[in-house]
Amino acid sequence: MPLEIAVFPARSDNFGYLVRDVASGRVASIDAPDAGAIIAELEKRGWVLTDLLITHHHADHTDGIGPLKAAYGAHAIGPKGDAGKIEGLDTLVDGGDAVMLGETRFAVIGVPGHTLGHIAFHAPADKVLFSADALFSLGVGRMFEGDYETMWAGLKRLKALDPQTLVYCGHEYTLANARFALSIDPDNPSLKARADEARRQIDRGEATIPARLADELAANPFLRADDLGMARRMGLEGAPASQVFGALRKAKDSF
């Protein structure tokens, strides 16, 4: 049976996500950015939180863990690589592991770079990916830990997923990401179409996610670091994709 997914705003620009396994009724929050927003959404839907699936150690993804565990007794699952920086985790997982939410299986994918232990949760049967700050609509997270080669390796794992996968990321950054992407890749028709769609969505008061992975593969410059044309635009023709990716990330940092 499918997942039900609730998307709602949290903090200033975070997305909050609740996922409900229809067969069992178990409900997980993907990350815990804001306990108040999460509790309000649970009460609105009449759902009871059973699990927390945490992607990385930053406070805007973990601040709600303590209050939510206190309120619901929820079981917190999170990244082994970031465990020393996250209070309240009950189970530690790493890339290659799996997490069950009732009958829904989430594959854990290692995506280090934004933090060393950053993980993503992928439900293959439902074709959904919760990428948090590793992959955004039209962008990627800032690299705070690790190196560009390692971060690119994690993104390649996401690139290999079913192109019809729907990507749910951690923040509403699409329009800002689009401005940078268009400065790098101004003649890309897929990027232009996605940027225009995002503007219309924002104007209608809608979220710009989920994004379809196939669209990201065509439009997101960071996922195209292995494209010869992108290497040429960055002045790095013949360079390894990880070097092109690093140049893109540095350019975005100073954009």
From TrEMBL:
<keyword id="KW-0479">Metal-binding</keyword>
<comment type="pathway">
    <text>Secondary metabolite metabolism; methylglyoxal degradation; (R)-lactate from methylglyoxal: step 2/2.</text>
</comment>
<feature type="binding site">
    <location>
        <position position="58"/>
    </location>
    <ligand>
        <name>Zn(2+) 1</name>
    </ligand>
</feature>
<feature type="binding site">
    <location>
        <position position="114"/>
    </location>
    <ligand>
        <name>Zn(2+) 1</name>
    </ligand>
</feature>
<dbReference type="InterPro" id="IPR017782">
    <property type="entry name" value="Hydroxyacylglutathione_Hdrlase"/>
</dbReference>
<keyword id="KW-0378">Hydrolase</keyword>
<dbReference type="Pfam" id="PF16123">
    <property type="entry name" value="HAGH_C"/>
</dbReference>
<feature type="binding site">
    <location>
        <position position="56"/>
    </location>
    <ligand>
        <name>Zn(2+) 1</name>
    </ligand>
</feature>
<dbReference type="InterPro" id="IPR035680">
    <property type="entry name" value="Clx_II_MBL"/>
</dbReference>
<protein>
    <recommendedName>
        <fullName>Hydroxyacylglutathione hydrolase</fullName>
        <ecNumber>3.1.2.6</ecNumber>
    </recommendedName>
</protein>
<dbReference type="InterPro" id="IPR036866">
    <property type="entry name" value="RibonucZ/Hydroxyglut_hydro"/>
</dbReference>
<feature type="binding site">
    <location>
        <position position="133"/>
    </location>
    <ligand>
        <name>Zn(2+) 2</name>
    </ligand>
</feature>
<feature type="binding site">
    <location>
        <position position="133"/>
    </location>
    <ligand>
        <name>Zn(2+) 1</name>
    </ligand>
</feature>
<comment type="subunit">
    <text>Monomer.</text>
</comment>
<feature type="binding site">
    <location>
        <position position="60"/>
    </location>
    <ligand>
        <name>Zn(2+) 2</name>
    </ligand>
</feature>
<comment type="similarity">
    <text>Belongs to the metallo-beta-lactamase superfamily. Glyoxalase II family.</text>
</comment>
<feature type="binding site">
    <location>
        <position position="61"/>
    </location>
    <ligand>
        <name>Zn(2+) 2</name>
    </ligand>
</feature>
<keyword id="KW-0862">Zinc</keyword>
<dbReference type="GO" id="GO:0004416">
    <property type="term" value="F:hydroxyacylglutathione hydrolase activity"/>
</dbReference>
<dbReference type="InterPro" id="IPR001279">
    <property type="entry name" value="Metallo-B-lactamas"/>
</dbReference>
<feature type="domain" description="Metallo-beta-lactamase">
    <location>
        <begin position="13"/>
        <end position="171"/>
    </location>
</feature>
<dbReference type="Pfam" id="PF00753">
    <property type="entry name" value="Lactamase_B"/>
</dbReference>
<dbReference type="GO" id="GO:0019243">
    <property type="term" value="P:methylglyoxal catabolic process to D-lactate via S-lactoyl-glutathione"/>
</dbReference>
<dbReference type="GO" id="GO:0046872">
    <property type="term" value="F:metal ion binding"/>
</dbReference>
<dbReference type="InterPro" id="IPR032282">
    <property type="entry name" value="HAGH_C"/>
</dbReference>
<dbReference type="InterPro" id="IPR050110">
    <property type="entry name" value="Glyoxalase_II_hydrolase"/>
</dbReference>
<comment type="function">
    <text>Thiolesterase that catalyzes the hydrolysis of S-D-lactoyl-glutathione to form glutathione and D-lactic acid.</text>
</comment>
<feature type="binding site">
    <location>
        <position position="171"/>
    </location>
    <ligand>
        <name>Zn(2+) 2</name>
    </ligand>
</feature>
